[in-house]
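SAMPLE LOG
Freezer: B-3
Tube label: C17
Construct: single chain, 119 aa
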Amino acid sequence: MQTEKIATNYTLQILKQKNDNSIIIEAFDESFALFINSKKFNIFIYLEEKYGITKQNIPENINKIVNILEQLFGSGAKLIEIKIIELIHKKICDFTYNPPKDDLFFKQYLHELLIFLRN
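STRUCTURE (predicted):
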């Protein structure tokens, strides 16, 4: 009986980790599709070819991706960031982020979200 319990817990942990990343990946994917809708420019191909960042490893490269978005789109990157936050909030309603001094820092938001999801 105890072996089954360990196996069940292990399975649940794997599923939880998969969902942690998939929520963030889906939010980036949906947001990019809204703002960067061009057959000539695919942001995921660009990120992979130029920076070695695949769609699957977005959560491990949050700092890099945010910096790249700011370089590519300037102040327009904020619109993408806001949409990503909105999409994430629709999927995870019980996550709250209280930014210091009423400043929203996208990188910090995503880091706090990952901590929340993994706990």
